[in-house]
Design a protein that fits this description.
The complex is a heterodimer of chains A (282) and B (307). Helix content of chain A is 12%, strand content 36%. In chain A, β16 and β17 form a beta hairpin. The longest helix of chain A has 16 residues. The model of chain A has no long low-confidence stretch (mean pLDDT 90). Chain B folds into two domains: 163 residues, no CATH class; 113 residues, no CATH class. Chain B is globular. The model of chain B has no long low-confidence stretch (mean pLDDT 91). The chains are: A mainly beta (282), B mainly beta (307). The interface between A and B is large, with 72 and 68 residues.
Chain lengths: 282, 307
Amino acid sequence: MKLKLFSLIILVLFVIASCEQVTTVEIDPDNTKKIAVECLLTSEYKFQTVKITRPFYEIGQLPEGVLDAQVIISDSRKKYIFAPDSDSSGLYVSEIRFAAILKEEYNLQIILGKDTFAAQSSLIAVTPIGPVPLKPSWRTDSLFMIDNAFVSSEEAMWEVVIDWSGLDFENDGRDSVKLYYYTFNTIDVNQVFAPNKEIIEFPIGAKLRVKKYALTSDHAKYYRAVLSEVEWSGGFFDVSPANIPTNISNDAVGYFGACTVTEDSILVQYSSDKELVRTKIR
Amino acid sequence: MVYNKQFDFEPRISLSLIINENNSIKANYAKHTQALHLVTNSESPFTSLDVWMPISPNIKHQVAHQYSLSHFYTFRKVPVTFSTEVFYKTLSNQIDYEEHANMLLNPNIEGELIFGKGWSYGLELLLRKNSGNFEGWIGYTLAKAYRQFKEINKGEPFSASFDRLHDFVLYGSYNLSKRWKISGSWLYATGATYTEPTGFFKYQNYTIPIYSEKNNERLPDYHRLDLMLSFRINKRNEAMYKHQITVSVFNVYARENPFNITYNKVKKTNTDEYEVPSDAFSKRDIVHTELYLLKVVPSLSYIFKVN
Protein backbone atom coordinates (compact mmCIF):
# COMPACT_ATOMS: atom_id res chain seq x y z
CA MET A 1 0.00 0.00 0.00
CA LYS A 2 2.82 2.37 1.01
CA LEU A 3 4.73 1.42 -2.15
CA LYS A 4 1.66 2.16 -4.28
CA LEU A 5 1.18 5.54 -2.59
CA PHE A 6 4.88 6.35 -3.03
CA SER A 7 4.74 5.35 -6.74
CA LEU A 8 1.63 7.50 -7.21
CA ILE A 9 3.26 10.53 -5.54
CA ILE A 10 6.40 10.11 -7.69
CA LEU A 11 4.30 9.79 -10.85
CA VAL A 12 2.25 12.89 -9.97
CA LEU A 13 5.48 14.83 -9.32
CA PHE A 14 6.87 13.77 -12.70
CA VAL A 15 3.68 14.80 -14.44
CA ILE A 16 3.63 18.19 -12.71
CA ALA A 17 7.30 18.81 -13.39
CA SER A 18 7.27 17.51 -16.94
CA CYS A 19 5.98 18.94 -20.15
CA GLU A 20 5.28 17.83 -23.68
CA GLN A 21 5.42 19.92 -26.80
CA VAL A 22 5.30 19.46 -30.55
CA THR A 23 8.66 19.15 -32.24
CA THR A 24 9.85 18.75 -35.81
CA VAL A 25 11.70 15.63 -36.84
CA GLU A 26 13.35 15.07 -40.21
CA ILE A 27 12.96 11.38 -41.00
CA ASP A 28 15.85 9.88 -42.92
CA PRO A 29 13.87 7.47 -45.15
CA ASP A 30 14.90 3.86 -45.60
CA ASN A 31 12.85 2.22 -48.35
CA THR A 32 14.09 -1.34 -47.95
CA LYS A 33 10.66 -2.46 -46.71
CA LYS A 34 8.67 -3.11 -49.86
CA ILE A 35 5.04 -3.45 -48.80
CA ALA A 36 2.83 -3.41 -45.70
CA VAL A 37 0.22 -6.17 -45.48
CA GLU A 38 -2.87 -6.09 -43.28
CA CYS A 39 -4.92 -9.27 -43.33
CA LEU A 40 -7.15 -10.69 -40.63
CA LEU A 41 -8.81 -13.80 -41.95
CA THR A 42 -11.74 -14.72 -39.73
CA SER A 43 -14.20 -17.54 -39.05
CA GLU A 44 -17.01 -15.23 -40.21
CA TYR A 45 -18.64 -16.27 -43.49
CA LYS A 46 -18.00 -13.13 -45.53
CA PHE A 47 -15.91 -11.56 -48.29
CA GLN A 48 -12.44 -11.63 -46.69
CA THR A 49 -10.00 -8.78 -47.35
CA VAL A 50 -6.26 -8.14 -47.68
CA LYS A 51 -4.91 -4.59 -47.61
CA ILE A 52 -1.56 -3.89 -49.26
CA THR A 53 0.06 -0.46 -48.96
CA ARG A 54 3.49 1.10 -49.26
CA PRO A 55 5.42 2.26 -46.21
CA PHE A 56 5.47 6.07 -45.90
CA TYR A 57 8.05 8.48 -44.59
CA GLU A 58 6.21 11.43 -43.09
CA ILE A 59 4.01 11.05 -40.10
CA GLY A 60 0.43 12.00 -40.91
CA GLN A 61 0.89 11.01 -44.56
CA LEU A 62 -1.66 8.60 -46.07
CA PRO A 63 -0.13 5.36 -47.33
CA GLU A 64 -0.24 4.68 -51.04
CA GLY A 65 -2.23 1.55 -51.97
CA VAL A 66 -0.58 -1.21 -54.02
CA LEU A 67 -2.78 -1.70 -57.07
CA ASP A 68 -1.34 -4.40 -59.31
CA ALA A 69 -0.74 -7.37 -57.01
CA GLN A 70 -2.03 -10.91 -57.40
CA VAL A 71 -3.41 -12.11 -54.08
CA ILE A 72 -4.29 -15.72 -53.25
CA ILE A 73 -5.16 -17.41 -49.97
CA SER A 74 -5.23 -21.19 -49.97
CA ASP A 75 -5.90 -24.00 -47.53
CA SER A 76 -5.69 -27.79 -47.95
CA ARG A 77 -8.94 -27.80 -49.95
CA LYS A 78 -9.16 -24.66 -52.01
CA LYS A 79 -7.60 -21.52 -53.43
CA TYR A 80 -9.35 -18.21 -52.88
CA ILE A 81 -8.58 -15.47 -55.40
CA PHE A 82 -8.69 -11.85 -54.27
CA ALA A 83 -9.49 -8.97 -56.64
CA PRO A 84 -8.71 -5.26 -56.18
CA ASP A 85 -11.55 -3.20 -54.75
CA SER A 86 -12.26 -0.26 -57.03
CA ASP A 87 -13.49 1.92 -54.12
CA SER A 88 -10.50 1.52 -51.84
CA SER A 89 -6.92 1.77 -53.06
CA GLY A 90 -4.80 -1.19 -51.97
CA LEU A 91 -7.75 -3.26 -50.73
CA TYR A 92 -8.21 -6.74 -52.20
CA VAL A 93 -11.50 -8.62 -51.65
CA SER A 94 -12.08 -12.36 -52.02
CA GLU A 95 -14.16 -13.25 -55.09
CA ILE A 96 -16.42 -15.47 -52.99
CA ARG A 97 -17.55 -15.47 -49.38
CA PHE A 98 -15.76 -17.98 -47.16
CA ALA A 99 -14.98 -18.61 -43.49
CA ALA A 100 -11.65 -19.71 -42.07
CA ILE A 101 -11.97 -22.88 -40.04
CA LEU A 102 -10.09 -24.49 -37.17
CA LYS A 103 -7.36 -27.05 -37.89
CA GLU A 104 -6.70 -25.63 -41.37
CA GLU A 105 -3.47 -23.86 -42.24
CA TYR A 106 -3.95 -20.84 -44.47
CA ASN A 107 -1.31 -19.68 -46.91
CA LEU A 108 -1.18 -16.14 -48.21
CA GLN A 109 0.65 -15.48 -51.46
CA ILE A 110 1.12 -12.00 -52.92
CA ILE A 111 2.83 -11.63 -56.28
CA LEU A 112 3.94 -8.14 -57.15
CA GLY A 113 6.10 -7.82 -60.26
CA LYS A 114 9.09 -10.08 -59.66
CA ASP A 115 8.54 -10.27 -55.91
CA THR A 116 6.57 -12.94 -54.09
CA PHE A 117 5.50 -12.50 -50.48
CA ALA A 118 4.21 -15.45 -48.49
CA ALA A 119 2.85 -16.15 -45.02
CA GLN A 120 1.07 -18.91 -43.12
CA SER A 121 -1.46 -18.72 -40.35
CA SER A 122 -3.90 -20.92 -38.44
CA LEU A 123 -6.70 -20.44 -35.93
CA ILE A 124 -7.34 -21.31 -32.31
CA ALA A 125 -10.80 -21.73 -30.77
CA VAL A 126 -12.46 -18.70 -29.22
CA THR A 127 -14.25 -18.84 -25.85
CA PRO A 128 -17.51 -16.95 -25.17
CA ILE A 129 -17.41 -13.15 -24.83
CA GLY A 130 -18.88 -12.64 -21.35
CA PRO A 131 -20.36 -9.32 -20.20
CA VAL A 132 -18.88 -6.16 -21.74
CA PRO A 133 -17.08 -4.25 -18.96
CA LEU A 134 -18.57 -0.76 -18.65
CA LYS A 135 -18.06 1.99 -16.13
CA PRO A 136 -19.81 5.32 -15.58
CA SER A 137 -18.08 8.52 -16.60
CA TRP A 138 -16.74 10.50 -13.65
CA ARG A 139 -18.38 13.63 -15.08
CA THR A 140 -22.02 12.52 -15.19
CA ASP A 141 -23.96 9.30 -14.64
CA SER A 142 -25.64 9.59 -18.06
CA LEU A 143 -22.38 8.84 -19.86
CA PHE A 144 -20.42 5.60 -19.90
CA MET A 145 -16.99 4.32 -20.92
CA ILE A 146 -15.57 0.92 -21.77
CA ASP A 147 -13.61 -0.42 -18.83
CA ASN A 148 -10.39 -1.99 -20.06
CA ALA A 149 -11.02 -5.10 -17.96
CA PHE A 150 -11.93 -7.72 -20.54
CA VAL A 151 -11.44 -11.27 -19.31
CA SER A 152 -10.45 -14.17 -21.51
CA SER A 153 -8.88 -17.57 -20.96
CA GLU A 154 -7.05 -17.27 -24.30
CA GLU A 155 -5.11 -14.26 -25.58
CA ALA A 156 -7.60 -12.15 -27.49
CA MET A 157 -8.35 -8.91 -29.30
CA TRP A 158 -11.64 -7.13 -28.67
CA GLU A 159 -13.13 -4.84 -31.29
CA VAL A 160 -15.86 -2.57 -29.95
CA VAL A 161 -17.92 -0.37 -32.27
CA ILE A 162 -20.01 2.13 -30.34
CA ASP A 163 -22.82 3.80 -32.25
CA TRP A 164 -24.79 6.71 -30.77
CA SER A 165 -26.24 7.98 -34.07
CA GLY A 166 -29.75 9.37 -33.58
CA LEU A 167 -29.05 10.22 -29.94
CA ASP A 168 -28.66 13.75 -28.60
CA PHE A 169 -24.92 13.51 -27.93
CA GLU A 170 -21.99 15.45 -29.36
CA ASN A 171 -18.43 14.03 -29.41
CA ASP A 172 -16.11 15.82 -31.87
CA GLY A 173 -18.70 15.52 -34.64
CA ARG A 174 -18.63 11.70 -34.51
CA ASP A 175 -21.60 9.41 -34.10
CA SER A 176 -19.63 6.16 -33.83
CA VAL A 177 -16.16 4.98 -32.85
CA LYS A 178 -14.16 1.77 -33.17
CA LEU A 179 -11.97 0.77 -30.23
CA TYR A 180 -9.58 -2.14 -29.73
CA TYR A 181 -8.71 -3.86 -26.46
CA TYR A 182 -6.43 -6.82 -25.82
CA THR A 183 -5.91 -9.53 -23.24
CA PHE A 184 -2.36 -10.87 -23.10
CA ASN A 185 -0.58 -13.41 -20.91
CA THR A 186 2.16 -10.86 -20.22
CA ILE A 187 2.45 -7.49 -18.56
CA ASP A 188 4.96 -4.81 -19.55
CA VAL A 189 6.53 -1.84 -17.79
CA ASN A 190 5.42 0.58 -20.50
CA GLN A 191 1.92 -0.93 -20.40
CA VAL A 192 1.66 -0.18 -16.67
CA PHE A 193 2.96 3.37 -17.17
CA ALA A 194 1.38 3.99 -20.58
CA PRO A 195 0.80 7.61 -21.63
CA ASN A 196 -2.66 9.18 -21.55
CA LYS A 197 -5.06 7.66 -24.05
CA GLU A 198 -8.10 9.35 -25.56
CA ILE A 199 -11.16 8.68 -23.41
CA ILE A 200 -14.33 7.86 -25.31
CA GLU A 201 -17.61 8.46 -23.54
CA PHE A 202 -20.99 7.44 -24.88
CA PRO A 203 -24.57 8.07 -23.78
CA ILE A 204 -27.30 5.79 -22.50
CA GLY A 205 -29.04 4.33 -25.53
CA ALA A 206 -25.79 3.69 -27.46
CA LYS A 207 -25.46 0.42 -29.38
CA LEU A 208 -22.29 -1.62 -28.86
CA ARG A 209 -21.10 -4.31 -31.26
CA VAL A 210 -18.34 -6.33 -29.62
CA LYS A 211 -16.21 -8.89 -31.45
CA LYS A 212 -13.70 -11.12 -29.75
CA TYR A 213 -10.83 -12.49 -31.88
CA ALA A 214 -8.86 -15.44 -30.46
CA LEU A 215 -5.12 -14.90 -30.98
CA THR A 216 -2.46 -17.53 -31.42
CA SER A 217 0.68 -17.02 -29.37
CA ASP A 218 2.58 -15.50 -32.33
CA HIS A 219 -0.35 -13.29 -33.28
CA ALA A 220 -0.58 -12.03 -29.68
CA LYS A 221 3.17 -11.29 -29.75
CA TYR A 222 2.59 -9.22 -32.87
CA TYR A 223 -0.15 -7.13 -31.23
CA ARG A 224 1.85 -6.78 -28.01
CA ALA A 225 4.75 -5.36 -30.05
CA VAL A 226 2.36 -3.04 -31.93
CA LEU A 227 0.98 -1.68 -28.67
CA SER A 228 4.49 -1.32 -27.27
CA GLU A 229 5.41 0.90 -30.23
CA VAL A 230 2.12 2.74 -30.54
CA GLU A 231 -0.14 2.86 -27.48
CA TRP A 232 2.34 2.30 -24.66
CA SER A 233 5.12 4.44 -26.12
CA GLY A 234 5.71 8.06 -25.11
CA GLY A 235 5.33 7.66 -21.35
CA PHE A 236 7.94 7.83 -18.61
CA PHE A 237 8.99 4.17 -18.79
CA ASP A 238 9.35 3.45 -22.49
CA VAL A 239 11.09 0.25 -23.52
CA SER A 240 13.74 0.10 -26.23
CA PRO A 241 12.04 0.58 -29.60
CA ALA A 242 12.31 -2.26 -32.10
CA ASN A 243 10.71 -3.42 -35.30
CA ILE A 244 7.40 -5.24 -35.06
CA PRO A 245 7.73 -8.96 -35.83
CA THR A 246 6.12 -10.15 -39.06
CA ASN A 247 5.20 -13.55 -40.48
CA ILE A 248 5.42 -12.29 -44.08
CA SER A 249 8.51 -13.13 -46.12
CA ASN A 250 10.70 -11.00 -48.36
CA ASP A 251 11.11 -7.67 -46.54
CA ALA A 252 7.42 -6.96 -46.06
CA VAL A 253 5.92 -5.55 -42.87
CA GLY A 254 2.54 -6.25 -41.30
CA TYR A 255 0.90 -9.54 -40.39
CA PHE A 256 -1.25 -12.28 -41.88
CA GLY A 257 -3.49 -13.39 -39.02
CA ALA A 258 -6.35 -15.84 -38.81
CA CYS A 259 -8.86 -15.76 -35.97
CA THR A 260 -12.02 -17.42 -34.81
CA VAL A 261 -14.47 -14.72 -33.84
CA THR A 262 -17.47 -14.45 -31.58
CA GLU A 263 -19.73 -11.43 -31.55
CA ASP A 264 -22.26 -9.75 -29.31
CA SER A 265 -24.43 -6.65 -29.76
CA ILE A 266 -25.93 -4.80 -26.84
CA LEU A 267 -27.96 -1.71 -26.10
CA VAL A 268 -26.83 0.21 -23.01
CA GLN A 269 -29.83 1.22 -20.92
CA TYR A 270 -30.94 2.06 -17.39
CA SER A 271 -33.60 -0.06 -15.68
CA SER A 272 -36.47 1.60 -13.84
CA ASP A 273 -34.43 1.48 -10.59
CA LYS A 274 -31.42 3.15 -12.31
CA GLU A 275 -29.36 -0.04 -12.68
CA LEU A 276 -27.24 -0.38 -15.82
CA VAL A 277 -28.73 -2.93 -18.22
CA ARG A 278 -27.01 -4.48 -21.23
CA THR A 279 -29.86 -5.55 -23.53
CA LYS A 280 -28.87 -7.95 -26.31
CA ILE A 281 -29.89 -6.80 -29.76
CA ARG A 282 -29.82 -8.56 -33.11
CA MET B 1 25.00 -25.25 -1.06
CA VAL B 2 26.81 -23.59 -3.95
CA TYR B 3 24.42 -22.79 -6.79
CA ASN B 4 26.93 -21.33 -9.17
CA LYS B 5 30.66 -20.79 -9.07
CA GLN B 6 32.70 -18.66 -11.46
CA PHE B 7 36.33 -17.83 -11.00
CA ASP B 8 38.20 -14.85 -12.35
CA PHE B 9 41.15 -12.67 -11.42
CA GLU B 10 41.68 -8.92 -11.64
CA PRO B 11 45.30 -7.96 -12.43
CA ARG B 12 46.23 -4.28 -12.29
CA ILE B 13 49.46 -2.57 -13.34
CA SER B 14 50.28 1.06 -12.70
CA LEU B 15 53.49 2.77 -13.79
CA SER B 16 54.35 6.27 -12.70
CA LEU B 17 57.13 8.51 -13.96
CA ILE B 18 57.86 11.78 -12.14
CA ILE B 19 59.62 13.98 -14.70
CA ASN B 20 60.12 16.99 -12.43
CA GLU B 21 58.27 18.69 -9.59
CA ASN B 22 55.61 19.94 -12.00
CA ASN B 23 55.21 17.08 -14.44
CA SER B 24 54.40 13.41 -14.07
CA ILE B 25 53.15 10.66 -16.35
CA LYS B 26 51.10 7.58 -15.44
CA ALA B 27 50.27 4.48 -17.42
CA ASN B 28 47.62 2.05 -16.16
CA TYR B 29 46.15 -1.25 -17.11
CA ALA B 30 43.36 -2.86 -15.09
CA LYS B 31 41.05 -5.76 -15.50
CA HIS B 32 37.73 -5.48 -13.66
CA THR B 33 35.04 -8.10 -13.26
CA GLN B 34 31.54 -7.66 -11.92
CA ALA B 35 29.19 -10.40 -10.79
CA LEU B 36 26.05 -8.26 -11.09
CA HIS B 37 24.29 -7.16 -14.27
CA LEU B 38 21.77 -4.36 -14.56
CA VAL B 39 18.60 -5.69 -16.18
CA THR B 40 16.23 -3.10 -17.59
CA ASN B 41 14.52 -2.77 -20.90
CA SER B 42 13.44 0.77 -20.14
CA GLU B 43 14.61 3.85 -22.05
CA SER B 44 13.42 5.86 -19.10
CA PRO B 45 15.69 8.22 -17.14
CA PHE B 46 14.17 6.74 -13.97
CA THR B 47 15.61 3.58 -12.56
CA SER B 48 12.97 2.42 -10.10
CA LEU B 49 12.11 -0.63 -12.24
CA ASP B 50 15.69 -1.73 -12.84
CA VAL B 51 16.69 -5.17 -11.64
CA TRP B 52 20.21 -6.28 -10.75
CA MET B 53 20.85 -9.91 -11.66
CA PRO B 54 23.68 -12.00 -10.27
CA ILE B 55 25.75 -14.23 -12.52
CA SER B 56 24.32 -17.69 -13.14
CA PRO B 57 25.13 -20.74 -15.28
CA ASN B 58 23.70 -18.73 -18.22
CA ILE B 59 25.08 -15.30 -17.28
CA LYS B 60 28.82 -14.80 -17.06
CA HIS B 61 30.84 -12.11 -15.25
CA GLN B 62 31.03 -8.72 -16.91
CA VAL B 63 34.69 -8.17 -17.74
CA ALA B 64 36.37 -4.86 -18.55
CA HIS B 65 39.96 -4.23 -19.64
CA GLN B 66 40.99 -0.60 -19.29
CA TYR B 67 44.16 0.99 -20.64
CA SER B 68 44.98 4.60 -19.83
CA LEU B 69 47.85 7.05 -20.15
CA SER B 70 47.79 10.32 -18.23
CA HIS B 71 49.86 13.42 -17.74
CA PHE B 72 49.67 15.67 -14.65
CA TYR B 73 50.95 19.21 -14.50
CA THR B 74 51.08 21.31 -11.34
CA PHE B 75 51.38 25.08 -11.81
CA ARG B 76 54.16 26.72 -9.84
CA LYS B 77 52.60 29.98 -8.71
CA VAL B 78 48.98 29.01 -8.25
CA PRO B 79 47.46 25.91 -6.56
CA VAL B 80 46.13 24.57 -9.82
CA THR B 81 46.58 21.19 -11.50
CA PHE B 82 45.94 20.20 -15.06
CA SER B 83 45.54 16.58 -16.11
CA THR B 84 45.18 14.92 -19.48
CA GLU B 85 44.18 11.29 -19.91
CA VAL B 86 43.53 9.08 -22.89
CA PHE B 87 41.78 5.76 -22.34
CA TYR B 88 40.59 2.68 -24.17
CA LYS B 89 38.24 0.18 -22.61
CA THR B 90 36.86 -3.15 -23.81
CA LEU B 91 33.84 -4.85 -22.27
CA SER B 92 32.71 -8.43 -22.67
CA ASN B 93 29.66 -10.40 -21.49
CA GLN B 94 27.47 -7.33 -21.83
CA ILE B 95 23.72 -7.85 -21.50
CA ASP B 96 20.94 -6.58 -23.69
CA TYR B 97 17.48 -7.88 -24.47
CA GLU B 98 15.60 -9.59 -27.24
CA GLU B 99 13.47 -7.13 -29.19
CA HIS B 100 10.22 -6.51 -27.30
CA ALA B 101 11.45 -8.72 -24.49
CA ASN B 102 9.05 -9.75 -21.78
CA MET B 103 10.83 -8.39 -18.71
CA LEU B 104 8.21 -7.95 -16.03
CA LEU B 105 7.09 -10.85 -13.79
CA ASN B 106 8.77 -13.26 -16.17
CA PRO B 107 10.14 -16.30 -14.29
CA ASN B 108 12.27 -17.21 -17.33
CA ILE B 109 13.82 -13.79 -17.75
CA GLU B 110 17.24 -15.23 -18.62
CA GLY B 111 15.68 -16.55 -21.83
CA GLU B 112 15.03 -12.95 -22.94
CA LEU B 113 18.66 -11.87 -22.54
CA ILE B 114 21.28 -11.63 -25.26
CA PHE B 115 25.03 -11.23 -24.80
CA GLY B 116 27.53 -9.10 -26.63
CA LYS B 117 30.49 -6.81 -26.26
CA GLY B 118 31.32 -3.13 -26.04
CA TRP B 119 34.20 -0.73 -26.23
CA SER B 120 34.86 2.93 -25.56
CA TYR B 121 37.72 5.36 -25.94
CA GLY B 122 38.33 9.00 -25.30
CA LEU B 123 40.28 11.95 -23.97
CA GLU B 124 39.69 13.64 -20.59
CA LEU B 125 40.98 17.08 -19.64
CA LEU B 126 40.70 18.50 -16.12
CA LEU B 127 41.85 21.87 -14.77
CA ARG B 128 41.37 22.03 -11.01
CA LYS B 129 41.90 24.49 -8.16
CA ASN B 130 41.52 22.84 -4.79
CA SER B 131 42.37 25.45 -2.16
CA GLY B 132 41.68 29.06 -1.22
CA ASN B 133 38.39 30.93 -1.05
CA PHE B 134 37.72 30.10 -4.65
CA GLU B 135 37.71 26.45 -5.67
CA GLY B 136 36.56 24.86 -8.84
CA TRP B 137 37.31 22.83 -11.91
CA ILE B 138 36.77 22.71 -15.63
CA GLY B 139 36.40 19.24 -17.10
CA TYR B 140 36.01 18.15 -20.69
CA THR B 141 35.64 14.64 -22.09
CA LEU B 142 35.72 13.67 -25.74
CA ALA B 143 34.60 10.03 -25.96
CA LYS B 144 32.82 7.35 -27.94
CA ALA B 145 31.11 4.23 -26.61
CA TYR B 146 29.85 1.32 -28.71
CA ARG B 147 27.95 -1.92 -28.21
CA GLN B 148 27.71 -4.94 -30.51
CA PHE B 149 25.22 -7.83 -30.32
CA LYS B 150 24.60 -10.48 -32.94
CA GLU B 151 20.81 -10.17 -32.51
CA ILE B 152 20.55 -6.35 -32.64
CA ASN B 153 21.14 -3.92 -35.49
CA LYS B 154 21.87 -6.80 -37.90
CA GLY B 155 24.97 -7.57 -35.84
CA GLU B 156 26.56 -4.17 -36.59
CA PRO B 157 28.06 -2.00 -33.80
CA PHE B 158 25.91 0.87 -32.55
CA SER B 159 26.43 3.86 -30.25
CA ALA B 160 25.67 2.98 -26.63
CA SER B 161 22.72 4.73 -25.04
CA PHE B 162 25.06 6.66 -22.72
CA ASP B 163 27.44 7.67 -25.53
CA ARG B 164 28.20 11.41 -25.43
CA LEU B 165 30.83 12.77 -27.78
CA HIS B 166 31.31 16.00 -25.79
CA ASP B 167 30.85 16.33 -22.05
CA PHE B 168 31.81 19.62 -20.40
CA VAL B 169 31.50 20.59 -16.72
CA LEU B 170 32.31 23.95 -15.19
CA TYR B 171 32.13 24.13 -11.39
CA GLY B 172 33.05 26.93 -9.03
CA SER B 173 32.51 27.73 -5.37
CA TYR B 174 33.40 30.86 -3.41
CA ASN B 175 33.47 31.41 0.35
CA LEU B 176 31.67 34.74 0.81
CA SER B 177 32.54 34.66 4.50
CA LYS B 178 33.41 31.99 7.04
CA ARG B 179 29.78 30.80 7.08
CA TRP B 180 28.39 31.73 3.67
CA LYS B 181 29.33 29.87 0.49
CA ILE B 182 28.05 30.26 -3.03
CA SER B 183 28.58 27.70 -5.78
CA GLY B 184 27.41 26.92 -9.26
CA SER B 185 27.91 24.43 -12.04
CA TRP B 186 27.20 24.42 -15.74
CA LEU B 187 26.93 21.16 -17.62
CA TYR B 188 26.92 20.60 -21.33
CA ALA B 189 26.74 17.25 -23.11
CA THR B 190 25.98 15.99 -26.57
CA GLY B 191 22.38 14.73 -26.72
CA ALA B 192 21.66 11.12 -25.84
CA THR B 193 21.22 8.58 -28.60
CA TYR B 194 17.78 7.29 -29.51
CA THR B 195 16.30 5.12 -32.23
CA GLU B 196 14.45 7.20 -34.77
CA PRO B 197 12.05 5.55 -37.23
CA THR B 198 12.99 5.56 -40.90
CA GLY B 199 9.43 4.96 -42.09
CA PHE B 200 5.91 4.04 -40.99
CA PHE B 201 3.12 1.74 -42.05
CA LYS B 202 -0.58 1.50 -41.24
CA TYR B 203 -2.27 -1.50 -39.61
CA GLN B 204 -5.81 -1.25 -38.17
CA ASN B 205 -5.31 2.53 -38.40
CA TYR B 206 -2.30 2.34 -36.07
CA THR B 207 0.69 4.28 -37.41
CA ILE B 208 3.52 1.82 -36.76
CA PRO B 209 7.18 2.89 -36.94
CA ILE B 210 9.80 1.04 -38.99
CA TYR B 211 13.40 1.17 -37.72
CA SER B 212 16.63 0.62 -39.64
CA GLU B 213 19.44 1.14 -37.15
CA LYS B 214 19.58 1.20 -33.38
CA ASN B 215 20.44 4.55 -31.79
CA ASN B 216 20.67 6.23 -35.20
CA GLU B 217 19.82 9.74 -33.92
CA ARG B 218 20.50 12.08 -31.03
CA LEU B 219 18.29 14.17 -28.82
CA PRO B 220 19.11 17.89 -28.68
CA ASP B 221 22.25 18.76 -26.70
CA TYR B 222 21.83 18.78 -22.93
CA HIS B 223 22.87 21.76 -20.82
CA ARG B 224 21.82 23.42 -17.59
CA LEU B 225 23.05 25.76 -14.87
CA ASP B 226 22.65 24.95 -11.17
CA LEU B 227 23.29 27.48 -8.38
CA MET B 228 23.58 26.96 -4.65
CA LEU B 229 23.91 29.19 -1.58
CA SER B 230 24.73 27.59 1.75
CA PHE B 231 24.93 28.96 5.29
CA ARG B 232 26.62 27.21 8.22
CA ILE B 233 24.50 27.84 11.32
CA ASN B 234 27.34 27.04 13.76
CA LYS B 235 29.67 29.91 14.41
CA ARG B 236 32.60 27.58 15.02
CA ASN B 237 33.64 25.24 12.22
CA GLU B 238 35.07 22.80 14.77
CA ALA B 239 31.73 22.29 16.56
CA MET B 240 30.75 18.70 17.28
CA TYR B 241 27.24 19.14 15.87
CA LYS B 242 27.12 20.94 12.56
CA HIS B 243 24.02 22.48 11.02
CA GLN B 244 23.83 23.84 7.52
CA ILE B 245 21.04 25.28 5.38
CA THR B 246 21.30 25.23 1.60
CA VAL B 247 19.14 26.94 -0.99
CA SER B 248 19.65 25.70 -4.52
CA VAL B 249 18.13 26.18 -7.92
CA PHE B 250 18.35 23.39 -10.49
CA ASN B 251 18.30 24.39 -14.18
CA VAL B 252 18.29 28.15 -13.51
CA TYR B 253 17.59 29.24 -17.07
CA ALA B 254 14.82 26.61 -17.54
CA ARG B 255 16.45 24.73 -20.40
CA GLU B 256 14.00 22.22 -21.88
CA ASN B 257 16.13 19.08 -22.10
CA PRO B 258 13.97 16.42 -23.79
CA PHE B 259 14.44 12.79 -22.82
CA ASN B 260 12.03 11.28 -25.32
CA ILE B 261 10.57 11.93 -28.77
CA THR B 262 7.24 10.32 -29.60
CA TYR B 263 5.45 9.44 -32.84
CA ASN B 264 2.04 8.33 -31.62
CA LYS B 265 0.05 11.23 -30.23
CA VAL B 266 -2.64 13.70 -31.27
CA LYS B 267 -3.43 17.08 -29.78
CA LYS B 268 -6.32 16.98 -27.33
CA THR B 269 -9.26 19.12 -28.34
CA ASN B 270 -9.16 22.63 -26.79
CA THR B 271 -6.02 22.00 -24.71
CA ASP B 272 -2.24 22.08 -25.14
CA GLU B 273 -1.96 18.46 -24.10
CA TYR B 274 -1.30 15.37 -26.21
CA GLU B 275 -2.75 11.87 -25.99
CA VAL B 276 -2.69 8.53 -27.76
CA PRO B 277 -5.78 8.29 -30.00
CA SER B 278 -8.30 5.50 -29.32
CA ASP B 279 -10.71 5.61 -32.22
CA ALA B 280 -9.72 3.45 -35.22
CA PHE B 281 -12.22 5.41 -37.38
CA SER B 282 -10.43 8.67 -36.54
CA LYS B 283 -8.57 10.71 -39.15
CA ARG B 284 -6.83 13.00 -36.61
CA ASP B 285 -3.22 13.84 -37.47
CA ILE B 286 -0.45 12.19 -35.46
CA VAL B 287 2.33 14.63 -34.46
CA HIS B 288 5.90 14.36 -33.19
CA THR B 289 6.20 15.46 -29.58
CA GLU B 290 9.09 15.70 -27.14
CA LEU B 291 8.89 15.08 -23.42
CA TYR B 292 11.10 16.90 -20.97
CA LEU B 293 11.34 17.03 -17.22
CA LEU B 294 12.20 19.38 -14.43
CA LYS B 295 12.52 22.93 -15.70
CA VAL B 296 13.46 25.31 -12.86
CA VAL B 297 13.47 23.39 -9.57
CA PRO B 298 14.24 25.33 -6.39
CA SER B 299 15.06 23.39 -3.24
CA LEU B 300 15.79 24.04 0.40
CA SER B 301 17.76 21.56 2.47
CA TYR B 302 18.97 21.27 6.03
CA ILE B 303 22.06 19.20 6.83
CA PHE B 304 22.96 17.97 10.30
CA LYS B 305 26.36 16.39 10.88
CA VAL B 306 28.03 14.91 13.94
CA ASN B 307 31.80 15.21 13.94
